[in-house]
Amino acid sequence: MAIDGPFVGSSSVGAAGSASGGDPSTEAGPFPYPLPDDAARIVLCHSCQGKNRVLLQRAFDQPDKLRCGRCQQALLIGKESPLRGLQGKMYQHPLDQKSLAALEAVPGVSTLLRKLVEATVERYDSLFNESSFVRVGGTQLPTVERLFERAAYALDVRELPALYVYQGAEANAFTGGVEAPYIAMTSTLLDGMSDDEVMAVLAHELAHMQSRHVLYKTAARLLGFAAAELAKVTLGIGGLVMVPLQLALLSWDRCSELTADRGMLLAVRDPAIALRVLMKLAGGSARLGRELSLARFMEQALRARQAGDEDVMSRVFTLLQTAWRSHPFPLWRAAELWRWACQGEYLNLLQSAA
Ligand SMILES: [Zn+2]
Ligand SMILES: [Zn+2]
């Protein structure tokens, strides 16, 4: 079955005010992937406040084609328009919020981590990057620069950080530099992804910046050196006392990915692209890319999500994160992102400001 198949159905927008009461879609479990033809939700008209029932697939494929049934104004902005005034907190995942609060409850954490980062990576990062990585810009990798600008424009990020490409066996990208921010991505990632997917990855990294994640992300990378020891301790193998700061930082680090994934979707405005990125991070193959099935991947992701108790999973994740630090748990994230696209704030954030 085609994932990006044409919209099936006749009328996307019902009569204004047709949905009284709550939106049933928010109470049900996550939608399957691909969506059933009749999967719909209510979108409020920004101009007249009328309630419009819209077919989700149509909203994902052609957001700018949806009109309000009452006043005929556009309901959502198009894929090429920037999300003016977008801020990280507007799409922050609740788990990010919660774990950040826990992290910041550790006394003096912000000052401590800032000092740690300033004394170590901040001083050497730009020197290291400039002498090791290829800097994108001008006539250097113009395709990547164009995708970077598109991602920034969509998220209304006005100041672009430095962008680097480096040789690495893993498909990976990361953001660093508190005073002088930068983004770096591996050539493996570049080679395994389409232009749209590369743009999505860059948007994910820009979302980390827009959400002010960079200081803590950098600290998490630094403290990651001690993480194996930490896992040993937590699993009861060692006899030491758990360091609460490290645990809080690891837990937050993982949850911050959920927020950045939302930023990625807000930039590309097509769940299939964002989910495919997560699939490729999980197990992409440049050679057999055509055989990768997004539908099967999502089936697996949604099944895994139903299986685990959120609380237990969260604790296990914090421990296991050490095994795969940069972009952990792509299937968990895919299920979260899909739920947000269908039932969360995603479409509300795309509401036309007209
Ligand atoms: Zn209206
Ligand atoms: Zn990330």
Characterise this structure.
- This protein is α+β, with helices and mostly antiparallel strands and 354 residues long.
- It has two domains: 76 residues, no CATH class; 255 residues, no CATH class.
- The strands form two sheets. The protein has a four-stranded mixed sheet with strand order 3-4-6-5, sandwiched between helices.
- A hairpin with a 5-residue loop joins strand 5 and strand 6.
- Helix 12 crosses helix 14.
- The longest helix has 25 residues.
- The two termini are 36 Å apart.
- Bound molecules: zinc ion (ZN) (2 copies).
- The site of one zinc ion has 5 residues, from helix 7 and helix 10.
- One zinc ion binds next to helix 7 and helix 10.
Number of domains: 2
Radius of gyration: 21 Å
Question: What's the shape?
Answer: globular
C-alpha termini separation: 36 Å
Strand percentage lies at 5-15%
Query: What value does the average pLDDT take?
Result: 83
**Helix fraction?**
40-55%
SSE sequence, one letter per element? EEHHHHEHEEEHHHHHHHHHH
Query: Total number of β-strand segments?
Result: 6
Counted by DSSP, the helix tally is 15
Main β-sheet, spatial strand arrangement? 3-4-6-5
Q: What structural category do the secondary elements indicate? A: alpha+beta
List cofactors, ions and other ligands: zinc ion
Let me know the largest β-sheet: 4 strands, mixed
Unreliable residue stretches:
1-27, 237-242
